[in-house]
Amino acid sequence: MSSSAVVIVGAGHAGVQAAASLREEGFQKQIILVSDEKELPYQRPPLSKAFLKCEMGIHGLPLRAEAFFRDNAIDLKLGVRAERIERAARRLETNEGAIRYGHLILATGSRHRRLDVPGVGLPGVHTLRTIADAAAIRERLKPGLRLVVIGAGFIGLEIAATAKALGADVTVVEIARLMGRAVSPILSDFYLKAHSAEGIAFRLGVGVSAIKGAGKAEAVELTSGEVLPADLVVVGIGALAEDGLAREAGLECANGVVVDAFMRTSDPTISAIGDCADFPNAALGVRMRLESVQNAVDQGRCVAARLAGKPAPYDALAWFWSDQGDLKMQIAGLSHGVDQWIIRGDPAAGNFSAFGFREGKLAVVESVNRTGDHAAAKRIIGAAKPLTPADAANLAFDLRALAKR
After folding, report:
1. What residues have CB less than 8 Å from 316, skipping those under 6 apart?
2. What's the order of all strands across the beta sheet hosting 253-254?
3. CA distances (Å), 204 to each of 152, 174, 345, in order?
4. Average pLDDT per run of 10 along the chain, which is 405 residues long?
5. 333 sits in which H/E element
6. Can you give the pTM of this predicted structure?
7. Rounded CA separation 45/154 (Å)
């Protein structure tokens, strides 16, 4: 096996994009893509929505058809677990033997933040990351089922909205505010009202002290003392970088695997991309880790271009989305340090955007059912001709015209 091979660990959005982009960039050497899952590499976003609702089957999930990997000479190794990196020998040890590499790309993603309370291991308590997780939850969802969702992040609320649409009795427990790490208080308040109007119950400002049941989950006990009956419990309280492989190999890690602006780790023969990478954000001047499809895909492209001899620092605009019931949330930019918010549209009608400014400069646009604003925002944020707070507040101002300039 060639020691000049590029070996990619992790076949999610980041890993698959890195492999695809290497071939698009004309990279001729061997590419080996290692996945510890047995399924063809697949999309994760639909798992909490269309797949859970049975609107999409397993055949709609793959990122690329099997033929793509074969036609592009990408050696896809499914069900192979990376166990150790031997940096001096440039060798990846797996459960199926050693693989030598010229360059190693870590696209290992993230893992669930564990809820550390009694009863979390009972049958009927689930998290959602894999097809198997989604299938197990989907099997249980039915009208009248009592579901308690712990954590009101994107995943928790998507599951709650899907379960409610399927007739379940849903309660969401959140210690802070809805999607507090990702969106403005404006969006948190809007989604709380919108989901409450659909019949989802919320317990905010409280934590979980235990999950109770005889042989299976039957109730969730809150720190307030309240006990919520539950037939099914889903935990979604955030994610941590899957950086164990990197840490054991002695690579610098902080909030994930530390990389430079070119996605290089502290070992120049190893890169890290996607959810596991702690990278310098060009727009904010701070280090961060982002869990988004856009970030994973763009970082995959960035590292592929560098390995193909076209290095450029990573400076892509962050953007996200979350479909919750009939509400399509789209975010362009990041709200860190925003000191002024301006709303365009009508929150009461479920159709509006919140424009966030940092020291007078547009930093983020959060849109609900306004895809035009989102498309414009992706072009306007950071552009040479900026949008002013006064322009944003003026409903007659043509955002699309500015975006086209």
Report:
1. 294, 295, 298, 299, 302
2. 253-254, 256-258, 277-281, 286-288
3. 9, 5, 28
4. 84 98 97 97 95 92 97 98 98 98 98 97 97 96 97 98 97 97 96 98 98 97 98 97 98 98 98 98 93 97 98 97 96 95 95 96 97 96 90 94 90
5. strand 327-333
6. 0.96
7. 10
